[in-house]
Write a structure and sequence with these properties.
There is one protein chain. The protein is built from 13 helices and 15 strands. Helix content is 36%, strand content 20%.
Length: 448
């Protein structure tokens, strides 16, 4: 086992910190990079990827960023810019991105003993046993292997803790954007870490959100270096024990372990804009029912049950000529559930409470919260409420069959009546690429 002993002096109340190294591998402009893998003609060309229904920009290549195309900007606001600079536009192709992500993660898993998949385009790697003096070479080899096996460019940050690895990765990406470095940054010595923290704004620290940033700045704490110089007692009082763990990580003391088992999501959400505005209540009900069905599927995929449901509805906020309205309603299930008919029932009940006739609605959302492992969901109901009906074995089997058929035949091939008979709720994808890696009839064709 390779370990490093580091003396942090005034930065820590602990005189010596013993650690092993961890890497954060982050795919560069992941969605855009996935599209570029199968379109080599777009190398060094600007690319944008759009949200559901092709509404807003959700991903950009570096070239598109340099043109001034902002994140989450509505497509119609940058149409002229896109046309003038011949920007390649793609609809979100989540089937492709999900499979490419799996390929990247499988590649990383072949290189190290332990990996934590943090998001679709990020993973932490345990570098225990790797040569400390040769970590730059290790990072370069990781980048080379991922690029060779998947075509996806990545940045690698290596440091004693997960929080410092995040910072190292940020530095690696920043250098690459400036045409410097090799996409790898290693923070291993006291001098390297101190230099990085002195320049890093507190807003860029992993786990420090906007509210904590504002709070720290009110105390004239602007950088990570300044934060590390505060006493543990003060940090715990102002930022709680979670904030203290973050600071200890900044000082080089590991407090956040790698987790090889993905953490269950804390909510299930389906939030989409309609292809066109609607004043028809029955049509809006069908949208909401479809979103409720998708949320229920997500619950069962991770074997969870929901305690609460929130339904929201709003008009088109970008249409200044239309009357504006938005509202939401949250209701509680009598017992946590993943049973689709019950989730649809409560979703439509919430919709009834917030729907106002006369408005042209553009977007609805269904959010399931208070998630519990399904095995813990059969809790004792409130003694003052009517006893809820438990989901029977027959009903569970029915949902299991429906889920399997929809996976095999395609989503919503088997539907509930409240979802309607057509697919008008489906998202607009006018610029969608092929699912090159998962569909035989959409394989890339190379012409001689």
């Amino acid at each position: 086992m390779h370990k490093v002993i580091l003396r942090f002096g005034e930065l820590s109340n602990t005189r010596y910190t013993v650690f092993k190294m961890v890497a954060l591998v982050d795919c560069n402009n992941f969605y855009a990079s996935c599209e570029r893998v199968f379109r080599p003609d777009l190398e060094h060309k600007p690319i944008v990827v759009l949200s559901n229904n092709d509404g807003c920009v959700v991903a950009r290549s570096e070239e598109a960023k340099h043109l001034g195309i902002g994140m989450a900007v509505p497509l119609f606001k940058v149409k002229d810019l896109i046309q003038n600079h011949k920007v390649a536009v793609f609809s979100s192709n989540y089937t492709l991105y999900g499979d490419m992500s799996a390929r990247v993660m499988n590649t990383l898993s072949s290189l190290v003993p332990r990996i934590e998949i943090y998001s679709i385009d990020e993973a932490f790697l345990d570098l225990e046993g790797f040569s400390i003096p040769k970590l730059e070479d290790t990072g370069t080899q990781i980048r080379s292997r991922v690029k060779q096996w998947t075509g996806i460019p990545v940045s690698v940050g290596i440091a004693p803790t997960k929080t410092l690895a995040k910072i190292a990765n940020h530095i690696a990406k920043s250098r690459t954007k400036k045409g410097l470095g090799n996409g790898v940054c290693v923070l291993r010595s006291e001098a390297e870490i101190s230099k990085a923290l002195e320049k890093l704004p507190v807003s860029e620290i992993w786990g420090i959100g906007r509210n904590l940033t504002n709070k720290l700045q009110s105390y004239a704490i602007w950088t990570a270096g300044q934060l590390c110089q505060q006493s543990d007692a003060w940090i715990r009082k102002q930022l709680t024990i979670t904030g203290l763990r973050t600071v200890l990580e900044l000082r080089g003391e590991p407090c956040i372990e790698l987790s090889e088992i993905p953490e269950a999501k804390k909510m299930a959400i389906c939030s989409l804009s309609f292809q066109k505005t609607s004043k028809d209540f029955e049509e809006v009900k069908e949208y909401v029912a479809n979103f409720a069905v998708r949320c229920a599927e997500k619950l069962r995929e991770q074997q969870s049950a929901a305690s609460n449901i929130t339904v929201s509805l709003r008009t088109n906020r970008f249409d200044s000529s239309a009357s504006q309205y938005g509202n939401s309603e949250t209701l509680a299930f009598k017992m946590p559930t993943a049973y689709t008919p019950e989730i649809i029932r409560l979703a439509l009940q919430a919709l009834d409470k917030i729907y106002q006739p006369g408005y042209a609605y553009k977007k609805a959302s269904v959010i399931l919260t208070g998630l519990l492992p399904e095995i813990n969901a059969q809790m004792q109901p409130d003694m003052f409420e009517d006893a809820p009906k438990l989901v029977t074995a027959k009903q569970r089997k029915m949902l299991e069959v429906v889920d399997k058929l929809n996976v095999k035949l395609g989503r919503n091939q088997v539907k509930f009546a409240s979802q309607g008979v057509d697919d008008k709720w489906r998202t607009k994808q006018a610029h969608c690429s092929s699912r090159y890696t998962t569909q035989w009839d959409e394989l890339l064709v190379v012409k001689g």
